[in-house]
Amino acid sequence: xxxTLLGMAVMGYHPSLEDDGIYLTAVKSRLNPALYPHNxxxxxxxxxxxxxxxxxxxxxxxxxxPLAATELLWQFLSIALILFACWxxxxxxxxxxxxxxxxxxxxxxxxxxxxxxxALYLVDQHLHPRAMATGIIxxxxxxxxxxxxxxxxxxxxxxxxxxxxxxxxxxxxxxxLSVALLEPVHEWVQVWREAExxxxxxxxxxxxxxxxxSTPAWQANLQAHSYMFFxxxxxxxxxxxVAPLFLFWLLWWFARKRGENLLARFALAVILxxxxxxxxAMVLLNSPRLIRLVPLQPMRFLHLMxxxxxxxxxxxxxxxxxxxxxxxxxxxxxxxxAGMLAAQRMQFTGSxxxxxxxxxxxxxxxxxxxxxxxxxxxxxxxxxxxxxxAVPGEDYHSFRALAERSQLADNIKDAAVVTLVPELGEVWAxxxxxxxxxxxxxxxxxxxxxxxADFEQLKTEFGVDWVLVSYPAPAGLxxxxxxxxxxxxxxx
Length: 492
What we know:
single chain, mainly alpha, 2 domains, five-stranded mixed beta sheet, 20 helices, 5 strands
């Protein structure tokens, strides 16, 4: 309980942030089908492979707990599950209690650690099916280490239903872990060959719709997301991809030398998993014929490796450095948590660190979204800056998720959706072009120069009847609300 609360306090809580613009919007759509009569495919199609939105909406219907409270509760439970699973793994690897809790403490502090160049954190600052699936995968790992493989299978299936791509990585690691625990270990070769075909095939079944033919808009969007391509990572991001393999090799050598058999086998499993997944990723990312698989982001196998790296590093610190020294523990806990907290506060300068229930936000964008949700028709169709997510102070909060209204496609989050769902490419390109963006270069320069005639053109072409613009608004618009930064206006 303590580490769960500490983890949330350090990482912060920001519902509707980044990916939650898809997940939270999908849940709200299930709870109220009248929402989002326009452009709903930009969140619905990506959710076809997951039961996450159905589970959350079903929980709200069943318990009558408000959605905002449900999201906070599930975020808390997801973090608690992750930390419990980490502790159970640490208990098997290290008999010393101080080592176990040091491992949990380091994982707790490092929830918002970037995973090399994958554009992932260990845990997001909002409810995400990846966090839920990660907790379940880690629990399955602990079951295998307890020689209870039959308990791991249903857990991995549940993870697959929540987040198929991350679950495939978890299945892959569990295969290698099971092999590394075999006697004799050399039998892993045949099992690995079988796992190679099985895990790859499994990753495609829930996402078969992504194999539609690509379009020019899809190609442009894919190339704009450099984090999907390993050869475009910065040098330190590349180092972050290969360094864990070297560190786990050192751990394997160290553990074998000291006769710590289970720790050595665990390190071996991580090495085999990492080498296999890295080789598979290099094949996918460097084969033009397999370019449609690039959006699966095979380098995200590092996510699980980073969890193990933080857990084992913390355990080793607790065992060999912190020991029973109260002062060392105090310095350790304050340093790692204060550093990560400061980084989060610097990242989200325009938002409360904990965006909890019932708190009025001073963020002008969130203030505008709230007014729109409470005062505009459910079927209102909005246009706003196609790059509003990246505006300083907006902090990547989703309009759809918070305003609960339809909007024209944006040039950031919806563009990322297009990489997974090519059929939306032409719709996206048409809409962002109408808002002053070049869908090929991905540059936007026209929105701030829009006048009444431009907004009327959007209404004629797409049916947009409301806009969110900078205050003061262009002449001719009827604006029933504004703050110091934004105005909500109707197009006549």
